[in-house]
Amino acid sequence: MKYLLLIMLFSASTSFNAWANDEQNDELMLTIFLKHDQSKNLSEIKEILNNANFYKHFPPEGATVESWKVMMGIGQVVTLRFPAALLPKVNLSIERYGWKAYSTEFYPTYDLYPIVKEEIKKARTNN
């Protein structure tokens, strides 16, 4: 948890540099790997999630799902956007309702594509 906090702080400062025009932005993005326990089949995982009311609690209110993908052989990859103050609720919603179904990894995330898109545009117009 200590390392997650350090990564979050580093990533947040990087993100804020990318969002220099919006200094009031207190949102975070977090990518969560919901890693499948391959000793359980899909029906068993769904039963655990249903019994825990996982989808009732995750994502918590105030968090927006940016993407929710399946990574075959790994599990599910969920990227959320939410106010920084909601971080404890996001964490608890996984700990309380998802841990029997999944092992998890958390990665602070930010959207680099607008910057990359501009770099691509510049590179292609300066032939």
Protein architecture, described:
By secondary structure, this protein is α+β, with helices and mostly antiparallel strands. It has a single domain (2-125), classed as Lrp/AsnC effector binding domain/regulation of amino acid metabolism (RAM) domain (Alpha-Beta Plaits). It has 5 helices and 4 strands. It has helices spanning 2-18, 42-52, 54-57, 87-97, 113-125, and strands at residues 27-36, 64-71, 75-83, 102-109. It has a 4-stranded antiparallel β-sheet. A hairpin with a 3-residue loop joins strand 2 and strand 3. The radius of gyration is 17 Å and the shape is flat. The termini are far apart. 16% of the residues are buried.
Radius of gyration (Å): 17 Å
| Main beta sheet | 4 strands, antiparallel
Molecular shape: flat
Q: Classify the fold: give the CATH topology.
A: Alpha-Beta Plaits
CA-CA gap between termini: 47 Å
CATH top level is Alpha Beta
Secondary-structure element pattern, one letter each: HEHHEEHEH
Number of helices: 5
CATH superfamily: Lrp/AsnC effector binding domain/regulation of amino acid metabolism (RAM) domain
Q: Residue share in helices? A: 40-55%
- The count of strands amounts to 4
**How many structural domains does the protein architecture include?**
1
CATH level-two architecture: 2-Layer Sandwich
Secondary-structure class: alpha+beta
Poorly predicted segments: 12-16, 18-23
- Strand content of the residues, in percent? 25-35%
